[in-house]
Automatic annotation (TrEMBL):
SUPFAM superfamilies reported in the protein's UniProt record: Periplasmic binding protein-like I
Record's protein name: Sugar ABC transporter substrate-binding protein
GO MF terms held by the record: carbohydrate binding
Sorted UniProt keywords: Signal
Chief location bin: other
One Gene Ontology CC term in the entry: outer membrane-bounded periplasmic space
Subcellular location: Cell envelope
InterPro entries: Bact_Solute-Bind_Prot2, Peripla_BP_I, SBP_2_dom
Length: 370
């Protein structure tokens, strides 16, 4: 009996040792046991980033590589924890859309220290050399398209111009505003527009080019922080302070679709505002309905499908040992970051069906009155 028990015990020990050795052998291949690509997005509270989440998942669906996607919910501290979590998962590539471009530096430096390739997604990470690549839309071109649309629809002179911007912590907000200022400033200087809601912008209205510090002063007055509620509060404050000469037919530079809808809702309730043109960007579904209904004038369509494909294509190139294709570079205050740029398209009521329905970005059944 004792001999039989010793034999059983021996067989169990041998079996367990075999299993442990097999497990140790398999842990060496990140594609089978770890996460290949870690993705950190800024928030679940904006439709655009939730859509990106699904598109990232779809982009790797037929690949041997794996991904994990985490949201920072508007917190740089959460963002750093998310990066640490992904590093512990054994990622080889980090794709990150930072909540705060400067604050994200320490997170990506930790990733670089682990030998991870860092790809900044849509928003540039600033003041660090720990970025390998940047995938982006041409953010200056977005602002120029918004400004040009307001110019093309301005009637007469002294058109009140209300300026709004994104978050000062987001480098893109500066680039969007820079682009808009590039085209609007000459029309402010010649009297086509009169700035209605920023003393800092008024003081600089004769300056064709603004320094980062000068733009920062203007953004300090007109920032929405990408928050529709903050946009509502600012719009209400500005309309309350404005005299009749700053109402009537007006132009509104709104930085994105969420703030555009919020600002439009405020201006549309003021009986002294007879008409308005308001810009946007991201082609959010709710804003496309607003455009169809005549409540928002335009949006800058940034086909996120292409941006996701570019980011994942770049990640796969890295994982396959190839050098990703780039089309330009952006200086982040520390280094020139090699970038892949994606084109943008202006969408208004005249081409909304062609650009967003015919391209299968949306289905016609998602809208009324189309």
């Amino acid at each position: 009996m004792k001999s039989s028990w010793k034999l059983v015990t021996y067989l169990i020990v041998v079996s367990m040792a075999t299993i442990m050795l097999a497990a140790c052998g398999s842990s060496g291949t990140s594609s089978s046991s770890g996460v290949s690509v870690g993705i950190v997005l800024p928030t679940r509270d904006e439709p655009r980033w939730v859509q990106d989440e699904q598109r990232f998942k779809d982009a790797l669906a037929d690949s041997e590589y794996t991904t994990e996607i985490l949201f920072s919910q508007g917190s740089s501290a959460n963002e750093k924890e998310n990066v640490e979590t992904l590093l512990n998962r054994g990622i080889d590539v980090l794709i990150i859309a930072p909540h705060d471009g400067a604050a994200a530096g320490s997170s990506v430096e930790a990733a670089k220290a682990e030998g991870v390739t860092v790809i900044a997604y849509d928003r540039l990470i600033t003041e660090t050399d720990a970025i390998d690549y940047y995938v982006t839309f041409d953010s200056v071109a977005v602002g120029e398209a918004q400004g040009q649309y307001l110019i093309e629809n301005a009637q007469g002179t002294n058109v009140p111009l209300y300026l709004y911007a994104g978050a000062s912590s987001d480098n893109n907000a500066f680039l969007f505003f820079e682009g808009a200022w590039n085209v609007l400033q000459p029309k402010i200087a010649d009297g086509t527009f009169v700035i209605a809601n920023s003393s800092e912008a008024t003081a600089l209205q004769d300056s064709p080019e603004l320094t980062r510090e000068e733009m920062g002063r203007i953004l300090g007055q007109i920032t929405t922080n990408w928050d529709p509620n903050e946009a509502i509060n600012k719009a209400q404050t500005h309309l309350t302070a404005a005299g009749a000469d700053l109402k009537g037919d007006i132009a509104i530079l709104a930085p994105n679709d969420g703030t555009a809808r919020a600002i439009a809702d405020v201006f549309s309730t003021d009986s002294e505002v007879t008409s308005y043109f308001v810009t946007g960007q991201d082609a959010e579904q709710a804003s496309i309905q607003y455009i169809i209904d005549g409540k928002q004038s335009m949006t800058v369509f940034k086909d996120v499908r292409t941006l996701v494909e570019d980011a994942m294509g770049m990640a796969i190139d890295v994982l396959d040992g190839n050098t990703p294709e780039t089309t330009g570079s952006y200086n982040n205050g520390k280094v020139d970051v090699q970038a892949k740029q994606t084109d943008v398209i202006v969408v208004d009521e005249d081409n909304v069906k062609q650009e967003l329905i015919d391209s299968e970005y949306y289905e016609a059944s998602e809208f009324t009155g189309l």
